[in-house]
Design a protein that fits this description.
The complex is a heterodimer.
Chain A (H helix, E strand, L loop, with lengths): L8 E11 L5 E11 L3 E5 L6 H8 L7 E6 L2 E2 L8 H5 L2 E4 L11 H11 L4 H14 L15 H13 L5 E5 L7 H16 L3 E6 L2 H6 L5 E5 L2 E6 L6
Parallel strand pairs in A: 3-8, 3-9, 6-7, 7-8
Antiparallel strand pairs in A: 1-2, 1-4, 4-5, 9-10
Chain B lengths: L13 H38 L2 E6 L7 H17 L4 E6 L2 H12 L3 H5 L4 E7 L7 H11 L3 E4 L2 H43 L1 H9 L4 H40 L12 H30 L4
Helix pairs in contact in B: 1-6, 1-8, 1-9, 6-9, 8-9
Classes of the chains: A alpha/beta, B alpha+beta.
């Protein structure tokens, strides 16, 4: 794992704006920086722009204005063919999981390794280990359509972390699971964070945020960052 | 190539159903055009070889009671004149019996035909490396021998060769058009496939797949479908070409020259499935790259 020293900024947004086509700006003058090894909530009501902000962070979109610096690379000056290398350092848990329905749980989790050209013997060794770690040892050959919401969620998380990313972005990861599983997922994220992964969890579940009140948060309202609470020394 | 892992469910796409049949049809038509081009090339080569280095002297029959003897005398004079021309290797006069034999397939061998006043032919073989002024020779011949004329076959041969070359170029244009239609179909099929699997492609993209990783999956599929369709097309073309060759050989009377296909023709036709598959693969790959380049 190539985790950076804690404290250095892993991602920085300067006056970033985003609009889709000719529509209104869904993000306006967004400015913040995330230190390496940090764990942030991204909060805000539905439609506030959380998913759009995450899309900018995982390089699914380019900003219409402002500056995004990711892993010390200014995205505006980064060539298209250089982006896959940056994306491989980011793990994403999509709100709707976005698992490939025709592939088994094992093949879904193996995808990030296959696109990197990892040998099949390595894949067959590491992927079942990780699926066992998230409690799906008995579902390696199961297709997503046969899995419950919670199981799909864990497959999606396993796919996001199999490449040992520097930055993990999760969009409403607890939205489809019960309270018990939500807490287990959050503890899993905390474990990953302790290992050095920078984590951003987007949620509108205030109850969850209150349970982890010690974690800093970026709060969005109408496409603007209205609150940015950092972790205090005491925390 | 066929055993490589694929992350996209391309086997169920509509392209998988129609592309092999389309490629089969294209390979069949291309095989016909290629065979035609090679056969014509062979025919032109044989014509050219058969008549280059040869001249024909035609002596019109003399009239009157002693016409036969006078005609023989004219032939004798023409033979003597031609033998003295530098560069002439062989002079062979056809007597009346041989001339009648040449005409027999068309006119039969009845007594009426034998009484016809037929022109006599003298076949002259010349050294192809020696320049002969044919215009001057023709004038000298017609002055020395009444009713004699010289034919170097070039006028009718050049017209025939021009016609054949035009047909040959048409065959090549047909092959190129077939390639263009196949490419256009693969572009359409690939774009449709990319639209159908847009969500999956985006996931691969976002987990760090290079464009070529995605393009390779479409290209591999297009190659496999191209090979399958190409072999089907070849399977249809071989019996068709065999049947045409068999029918041509049955024609009597020397109306058609030999329609045999040279070895290079067989090799080219045998390679058509691979060429079609390669074209499909390359087109699919370029199409995916072109489409993905518009993604962020």
């Amino acid at each position: 794992m190539r985790h950076r020293p804690r404290g250095e900024n892993i991602i920085r947004f300067d006056s970033v704006g985003l609009r889709y086509g000719l529509g209104p700006e869904v993000l306006q003058d967004v400015t913040f920086a995330l230190p390496s090894g940090s764990f942030h909530f991204l909060t805000g009501p539905s439609g506030a722009g959380k998913s759009s902000l995450l899309r900018l962070m995982y390089l699914g979109l380019r900003p219409t204005r402002g500056r995004v610096v990711l892993f010390d690379r200014d995205i505006a000056n980064t060539k298209r063919y250089e982006l896959p290398a940056l994306r491989r350092r980011i793990g994403v848990v999509f709100q709707d999981f976005r698992l490939l329905d025709h592939l088994t749980a094992l093949d879904n989790v193996a995808l990030p390794l296959r696109v990197r050209g990892v040998r099949e013997s390595e894949i067959q060794k590491h992927v079942p280990e990780l699926l066992a770690w998230v409690g799906l040892a008995d579902h390696l050959g199961a297709k997503p359509s046969t899995l419950s919401g919670g199981q799909k969620q864990r497959v999606a998380i396993a796919r996001a972390v199999i490449g040992r990313p520097d930055l993990l972005l999760a969009d409403e990861p607890t939205g489809n699971v019960d309270d018990h599983i939500a807490m287990r997922l959050m503890y899993l994220f905390e474990e990953l964070n302790k290992l050095g992964t920078t984590i951003v969890v987007a949620t509108h579940n205030e109850l969850l945020v209150q349970r982890f009140v010690h974690l800093p948060r970026i709060h969005l309202e109408h496409g603007m960052v209205t609150r940015m609470r950092e972790r205090t020394e005491a925390e | 190539m066929f055993g490589r892992h694929s992350d996209l469910p391309l086997a169920g796409d509509a392209t998988s159903r129609f592309l092999p049949w389309l490629v089969a049809l294209m390979v069949f038509m291309a095989a016909m055009a290629v065979a035609g081009a090679f056969v014509i090339d062979g025919i032109i080569g044989r014509w050219d070889h058969d008549v280059s280095g040869t001249l024909t002297v035609q002596v019109l029959p003399a009239g009157g009671d002693q016409g036969e003897a006078a005609t023989d005398e004219r032939v004798h004079l023409a033979v003597e004149l031609m033998r003295k021309v530098p560069g002439v290797l062989l002079v062979n006069a056809f007597d009346k019996k041989r001339t009648l034999a040449l005409l027999e397939p068309w006119l039969g061998s009845t007594d009426v035909v034998q009484d016809l006043p037929l022109p006599r032919l003298i076949d002259v073989t010349v050294d192809a490396d020696v320049h002969i002024d044919l215009t001057e020779l023709a004038e000298r011949l017609s002055r020395a021998v009444p009713g004699a004329s010289l034919d170097d076959h070039r006028v009718w041969l050049s017209r025939l060769i021009n016609l054949s070359r035009t047909i040959q170029w048409l065959a090549i244009v047909v092959v190129l058009l077939i390639g263009a239609v196949t490419s256009a179909t693969v572009v359409y099929g690939t774009r449709t496939g990319m639209a159908v699997h847009h969500g999956l492609i985006e996931v691969l993209h976002l987990i760090g797949a290079h464009d070529d990783y995605i393009a390779r999956q479409f290209a591999d599929r297009a190659f496999a479908l191209g090979v399958a369709g190409g072999l089907m097309g070849l399977g249809m073309a071989v019996p068709a070409l065999t049947a045409i060759g068999w029918a041509a050989r049955r024609l009597e009377g020397g109306f058609l020259p030999s329609l045999s296909l040279p070895l290079l023709g067989y090799i080219t036709i045998g390679l058509l499935p691979l060429l079609a598959a390669g074209l499909a693969m390359l087109t699919a790959r370029l199409t995916v790259h072109s489409t993905l380049s518009r993604m962020p």
